[in-house]
Structure formats: C-alpha cells, structure tokens
Design brief:
Largest sheet: 9 strands, antiparallel
CATH class: Mainly Beta
Strand order of the largest sheet: 8-9-12-13-23-20-19-15-16
CATH architecture: Distorted Sandwich
Mean pLDDT: 85
Number of strands: 23
Number of helices: 3
Radius of gyration: 23 Å
Strand content: 35-45%
Low-confidence stretches: 309-316
Shape: globular
C-alpha cells in the first residue's frame, strides 16, 4: 500500500503544480480590464501624481494634497489641505491639524485588483509642545474604480498610540467658484445657485435672509442621515458631478453659503464613541453631460447594486 500511496501523493503534487503554472500563465495573459479593473496608469512627475484612466484623469499635488479631476473636457478641482483638516485629541486636549503638515508623508501606487490609484500615509504632526509630535498614522487612498472610472476615496486611522481622531474633513471641499448650482438632497431637494444673494444652510432655519441665531441644531444640521439621501452634487454648464457617502453612519458635511456665495461643501467624518474607529469612504461620479436628474438616477443605480440596506436613508 505504501508505494501506491506515494504515487497518489506524487500525482497530486504534479496536478497542483500544473494548475498553479496554468493559473500563473493565465494571469500574465489577462489585462486588468479582463477581471473588472479599470484601465488606469499611475505616474509621478514634477511634484504631482497622475492617475489616468480612459475618461478621467486625477492629479494629486504632493505638497498640499489638492486634487484636480479632468472628466473628458471638463475640469473639477478640490481645494488644498487646510488648517482645520482634522480635529484630534491627545493628553486630554483637542486641537486642529493640517494634513499636509505631517512630517512623514509617503505616497505610493496602490492597486487592489478592482481599483487603481495611490495610497497616502501620513504621521507625526507638530503639536503645541516643543518637544513632541502627534503620533497618529492616517491612511488615505485615491483611486479610479469601475467602468465609469468613479473616483473613490477611503480613509483609515491607527489610534493605538494615544491620539484619537475626532473629526476629519477629507477629501477637501470642491472649489465651487466656477460651479453654477449645488445640488442638495435635503428635504425635497434644493438647487442652490452659486451666487444666491442670501445666506443659506441646508437644515437650520433661515430668518430675514440669515441663519436664525436661535437655531442651535448643530448636530441635526450636520448628520447626513438627517437628509433624504446621503449625496450631493454640482452642475457646471452642461456637466455635473456628485459625491456619494458610502459610509453614511457618523458622516457629515462641511458647509457654508454666505450671502452672494459661493457654496462650500465637502465630506466630514465624525468620531464614533469618541474615536474614528473604522474606515470611511466616499465616491465621486462625473458626467460630461448631466444635471440634477442625472445625479438622482445615478444614486438610484448605486442603490440597486445592493449598497442600501433595509431601513437605511435613501431606500425609498
């Protein structure tokens, strides 16, 4: 029996090695698009990373983390990193930090098999103490995903070093100076002109053209799930873009529309039970020709892919 058993083992090893070799050759012959990944290249030159798909091209600035997206012939830009990017807590103190002020910044190509872009690792921010730094590793990914080359941005933080992340405004707000309308899904929906002559806020009461100073519903006005759906968008000429918050729990938005505009809005991630706790994600969709109807249909399509759960906001 022993020689027979050895033959079976040897035969099994031969079959396994042949299968692995065949799989390796097959993988080498397949292009990323064959398994569903977008055809995207990643390059670096002159202080900028470029993530280039067939339709969308994303440019990331090394020094200030500003992003520019070219969708066909249309350009969209996100403002650079700012002084209030993130609110941290360490040693019983809370204070704001600028992402781009990290002393350790690493940006490398990032591929998962279904999306392609860059991974940004940041740590060691200057603190108010002359002899210490803030030890809070933060990881950001910027990738193009799917046949439409959606821009997907993910965030995670390592809070095991004594510092917790209480709030993060990233990706930064869209530079809306050239935007015609901001599309808001709060209530029954609003189409807010860039130069609307009165102050506006999506949830808080407006009185005599200004935010009612007696309305202190800050929490209610900042939680996305108090909106009808967890997205907002923009129209510029005949083009449009939208932001879908894929992790709407503990998600919010940075918002400002002073009298005469422009409107400033971008994702804001809030702590859960006192810390960041889990990864957050948002998706940017671009349309060379589109309007608010296009955006609403895209959000419905997003839900039909199984991204809504029963009872979640936006399922109606």
């Amino acid at each position: 029996m022993l020689p027979g058993k050895m033959s079976c083992r040897r035969l099994a090893a031969i079959v396994l090695s042949t299968s692995l070799a065949s799989a390796s050759l097959l993988a080498q012959s397949l292009s990323p698009t064959d398994w569903g990944a977008p055809h995207v290249s990643v390059s670096h030159a002159d202080g900028h990373w470029t993530i280039a798909g067939k339709t969308n091209v994303v440019t990331l600035n090394d020094s200030n983390l500003a992003m520019d997206i070219k969708n066909g012939t249309i350009n969209w830009s996100m403002v650079p990193s700012g002084t209030n990017d993130m609110l941290v807590e360490t040693g019983g103190k809370k204070f704001y930090l600028r992402l781009a002020d990290a002393k350790r910044i690493s940006i490398v190509p990032y591929r998962t098999g279904f999306k392609t872009g860059v991974k940004i690792s940041l740590n060691e921010w200057p603190s108010d103490s002359a002899h210490s730094t803030v030890n809070l590793p933060v990881y950001l990914t910027v990738c193009l995903e799917g046949p439409d080359e959606d821009l997907v941005c993910d965030v995670a933080a390592d809070e095991r070093h004594g510092t917790v992340l209480r709030q993060l405004d990233w990706p930064t707000a869209l530079d809306a100076r050239a935007v015609d309308y901001t599309v808001l899904s709060n209530g029954r929906g609003n189409l807010l002109p860039r130069d609307w002559p009165k102050e506006y806020f999506p949830i808080r009461r407006i009185k005599d053209g200004k935010i009612d100073p007696t309305d202190h519903s800050v929490l209610q006005s900042h939680v996305i799930e108090d909106w009808s759906m967890s997205w907002w968008g923009f129209q510029k000429g005949k083009s449009a873009m939208m932001v879908i918050c894929e992790t709407p729990d503990d998600a919010a938005y940075q918002f400002s529309h002073p009298a005469g505009g422009p409107t400033v809005i971008g994702p804001r991630w809030l702590a859960a039970l006192g810390k960041f706790g889990y990864p957050r994600s948002c998706r940017f969709c671009f349309f060379e020709r589109g309007n608010y109807v296009t955006l609403a249909k895209r959000y419905r399509q997003y839900g039909e892919l199984g991204n809504f759960v029963e009872g979640q906001t936006g399922t109606k």
